Amino acid sequence: MTDAGTPRDRALGGYRPEAGSNSHVADRPVKIPVPSLLRSLLTDHLDPGYAAAAERRAAADDGAPRRPRSRLADGAWLLAGVAAVSAVFGTAAQHAVSMAPAATKTQHVLSANARTAEGRARESTTTRDALAGQVEAARRSRLAGDAKGRQLLAALEAAEFGAAATAVAGPGLTVTVTEPGPSRNLSDVSKQRVAGSPQIILDRDLQLVVNSLWVAGAEAVSVGSVRIGPNVTIRQAGGGILVDNQPVAGPYVIAAIGPPHAMQEVFEHTPAMQRLTLLAASYGVGTSVQTRDRLTLSAASVRDVNFARQSGPK
């Protein structure tokens, strides 16, 4: 290996200018040495341009003494930077403090409006139920007078019961489903329960429970005190569940009126119970199935039907 100590040697990748030439044979062409990239990487650890700049800087330093850097100037720049950062944070803090009362006031106004709307909705519901009771009493008194009226009244009662338009009471079964609490095992990502995360119990789980109760022999079903009727839906809305467009919070109580023990025996072998058992084993969802001697389910909301079509054979 040739010596690559001079700048010219380094520029040629570690070779001397006469490397590769044959000066002992007359009239032979002089070979131009080709630098080797591997040899250059092994011998030169600094780019030639940087090496030349370093040499010029060293020569300039040798000619004129270098002026020492002022610590006072460095300290002044440091203090200026700290002051600028402090001013920015101070302005942001003052802005946040000044905006806090307005945000709090807005929250109070919105909360008051929400409570007022809820109160009006409850009053309207009470008034509606009272008027519906008066209409029912007047209808019964008018139709119960003759045989044709009683026959028509029986048909109306059967239709209203099928439409969940009347309140019912009797023995039955309750299925209570409870969301799991925060998990202590943070190594399992699927069990972490943080604020704002999607809940474990979804709308399709409650739908499966309701359908399984119908199969088990239920005559009337409610979810979270909301009666299930022909026009009632159970759907997901962000982080909550809506039953007939009414928010239902956990624990979710599904009540069904019917033969309690017979319904429980059938429900234990339905896909809904298998699903709840899987959720309990995987995520800690709470499930409770209990028989009741008496349950009272309110009537469902009755909506006007604008369009209908008969299904099946006429």
What does the largest sheet look like? 5 strands, antiparallel
Looking at the overall shape, the CATH architecture of one domain is 2-Layer Sandwich
Helix content: 40-55%
CATH domain class of one domain: Alpha Beta
| SSE order | HHHHHEHEEEEEEHHE
- How much of the sequence lies in strands comes to 5-15%
**Count of helical regions:** 8
Radius of gyration: 43 Å
Textual characterization of the structure:
- The chain has helices at 7-11, 37-43, 48-63, 71-143, 147-162, 203-215, 260-267, 271-283; strands at residues 168-178, 220-223, 226-227, 234-237, 240-243, 246-248, 252-257, 286-297.
- It has 314 residues and is of the alpha+beta class.
- The termini are far apart.
- Strands 3-2-7-1-8 form a 5-stranded antiparallel beta sheet. It has a 3-stranded antiparallel beta sheet with strand order 4-5-6, covered by helices on one side.
- Residues 10-15 and 186-196 have low confidence and may be disordered.
- The longest helix is centred in the middle third of the chain and has 73 residues, at 71-143.
- The protein contains 8 helices and 8 strands, in the order αααααβαββββββααβ.
- β4 and β5 form a beta hairpin.
- It is elongated.
- Among the domains are: 7-61, no CATH class; 167-182 and 198-297, Protein of unknown function DUF881 (Alpha-Beta Plaits).
Concise overview:
The protein is of the alpha+beta class and 314 residues long. The chain has eight helices and eight strands. Helix 4 (71-143) packs antiparallel against helix 5 (147-162) and helix 6 (203-215) packs antiparallel against helix 8.
